[in-house]
Design a protein that fits this description.
By secondary structure, the protein is an alpha/beta fold. It folds into four domains: 127 residues; 158 residues, Sandwich (Immunoglobulin-like); 178 residues, Rossmann fold; 52 residues. It is built from 15 helices and 18 strands. A six-stranded mixed β-sheet has the order 2-18-17-11-14-13, with no helix packed on it. It has a six-stranded mixed β-sheet with strand order 6-5-4-7-8-9, with helices on both faces. A hairpin with a 2-residue loop joins strand 13 and strand 14. Helix 1 packs antiparallel against helix 4, helix 2 packs antiparallel against helix 3 and helix 14 packs antiparallel against helix 15.
Length: 556
């Protein structure tokens, strides 16, 4: 096969693409089958046909919903353009293969293998060409009960209502010349309650799974979900809806949730039915494009993923997409799992990518509670985001002190130059975030003088960004008293109950995860043994907590 044979195909496909882009009138919807037929007729013989159903579905969607034909036509045109590239590469590969079949000394190259996001799948190629810059303008006049970003920021003194602290298991330690000591610490950022009848406006992107596994009860439950969701949104908020199976499209552009628009949203949802496979990442990529292309921006932004999560490995793809589309830390991802057969681990992992929460929805009764909790946090935001940095403080006495471990999902922490960084988005009234780490105190043979025993070992900084972009910086340090190895501690210090409670919580989470993995490998006895150790620790903690409360009552 001569690679030059591609030229007529490319020129014909380009003609089809140009023709589709020129015809924008929904009343002429019958052009789609004509262009589709010309495109299919021009396809080279023997090429892959996995994309035919995608083209058919796109053209059918335009015919069935003329009001949304411009979005669909953009997608079809972009798909054809991406498919041209796909066919060219595919034909070049087969041409080289045929040329080299009878030449054993030649190395047969494989088709170019790239990261999944840059693969030959036309579904992923055409997303970058979509135009989602038609978001509705924000209301020009202030809605009753709402504040502009500047007014809202002026009404919240972030320095006054936020508090950063560091605590450790014990603050009085005896040095050791033989072994290092590893102790849990807890860094906390607390936000006081801020009472106000004003709240931050919200941009919300709902990504809905309507794959075959969502058919029937699940998809109907999703539709009913919006009866509850829209109760909490007003004229100042905006909503967009993405639907996906093994394809994805924008069902509703980013529009204000006025009463008139709410009726349009309900009407659009009524047409959604379960079908096809599942590609969660594809739906999320469309959501990312909506966010990146919006011309206006509300103070708070969040993505709601509504799915049964039956798409193994989706969290890694979404993680790559967050980087590819440069989605900032000011966007949260909250996930809602539908059906008892949903994959909670996947849905939790996805929500952890952007400081969100996971909610299980099995019946209508649980929807209201989930949205009260989720939206309650988003709508009571007092700041855009907070970045927390934690690092050790080396000294002459402990030059090699280090952080041994930071607990939490691996996507939670970034480590650079011995500094651990994590993000909170948004900053919510009456919320407290606790982060558990382990600090490693090295052995030392130095004989400490009295003025050397009080040692700063770790520091933290929180950079809190308000809605106007101004930053408030909070700092905290932690010092311990380090006694010489030969000295006796006069009064045995009790373990800090809050630190140990959260330490066992995160350790318990790790044990549970490990237990599930062991059970999957049929190592039930090992799993039971680990869980037994965890239960013993919890009983000791509960007993100690009761002892401390009793001791406190006797003292005061």
């Amino acid at each position: 096969m001569n690679p030059q044979n591609n030229k007529p195909v490319q020129s014909q496909n380009q003609a089809n693409l140009n023709s589709i882009q020129q015809q924008r009138n929904p009343s002429k919807a019958n052009f789609v089958p004509d262009q589709l037929g010309a495109y299919l007729h021009a396809r080279p013989s023997g090429s892959h046909n996995h994309d035919l159903s995608l083209l058919n579905d796109q053209s059918r969607a335009i015919l069935q919903n003329p009001s949304n034909s411009q979005d669909r036509t953009d997608q079809l045109a972009a798909f054809l353009n991406a498919n041209n590239q796909y066919q060219s590469q595919n034909q070049n590969y087969h041409s080289m293969r045929n040329h080299n079949l009878n030449m054993p000394n030649q190395i047969m190259p494989n088709p170019t293998v790239r990261s999944w996001n840059d693969s030959m799948n036309p579904n992923y190629h055409f997303i970058e060409n979509l135009k989602y810059d038609d978001d509705e303008e924000l209301p020009s006049s202030r809605f009753q009960g709402e504040l502009s970003n500047q007014e809202k920021t002026q009404s919240v003194d972030l320095d006054k209502i936020t508090h950063l602290s560091i605590k450790i298991k014990r603050k009085i330690l005896a040095a050791s010349s033989f072994h290092e000591q590893i102790l849990p610490i807890m860094v906390s950022l607390g936000v006081d309650e801020h009472n106000s009848d004003k709240r931050a406006p919200l941009d919300l992107i709902c990504v809905i799974d309507h794959s075959g596994s969502m058919s029937g009860t699940k998809i109907e439950l999703v539709k009913n979900t919006f009866n509850y969701l829209l109760r909490y949104l007003n004229d100042y908020d905006r909503l967009s809806i993405i639907i996906f199976d093994n394809q994805a499209s924008r069902l509703v552009p980013l529009i204000t949730t006025s009463q008139k628009n709410k009726e349009k949203i309900f009407a659009a949802l009524r047409s959604v039915q379960g079908r096809g496979g599942t590609d969660i990442n594809l739906g999320m990529m469309h959501a990312f494009q909506v966010l990146n292309q919006r011309r206006h921006k509300n103070s708070v932004t969040s993505i709601f993923l509504l799915s049964d999560g039956l798409d193994k490995g989706a969290e890694n793809k979404i993680k790559d997409s967050l980087t590819k589309f440069k989605i900032g830390q000011d966007v949260t991802i909250n996930t809602f799992g539908f059906g008892r057969d949903h994959d909670p681990e996947l849905m939790v992992n996805i929500s952890n990518l952007r400081d969100g929460n996971f909610y299980f929805i099995d019946k209508l009764d649980s929807i209201d509670e989930a949205f009260v909790d989720c939206l309650g946090g988003l709508l009571s935001s007092v700041g855009q985001s907070a970045k927390i940095k934690i690092q050790t403080s080396p000294s002459d006495v402990l030059p090699n002190i280090s952080i041994n471990k930071a607990y939490g999902d691996e996507s939670m922490w970034q480590l650079e130059n011995q500094t651990y960084t994590t993000n909170i988005c948004p900053v919510v009234s009456s919320q407290k975030k606790d982060y558990v780490l382990e600090i490693k105190i090295p052995s030392t043979t130095k004989n400490l003088l009295d003025h050397e025993k009080n040692i700063k070992i770790i520091s933290a900084e929180a950079i809190i960004t308000g809605f106007d972009g101004k930053e408030t910086i909070k700092k905290a340090d932690l010092s311990i008293t380090l006694l010489n190895e030969t000295e006796q501690i006069q009064e045995e210090e009790d373990d800090d109950i809050d630190v140990m409670k959260h330490f066992y919580r995160v350790k318990g989470s790790l044990v549970m995860d490990e237990g599930r993995k062991l059970a999957d490998r049929n190592q039930y006895e090992e799993a039971k043994k680990n869980l037994g150790k965890l239960q013993t620790r919890n009983r000791k903690l509960s007993s100690k907590r009761g002892y401390l409360y009793q001791k406190y009552d006797q003292r005061y």
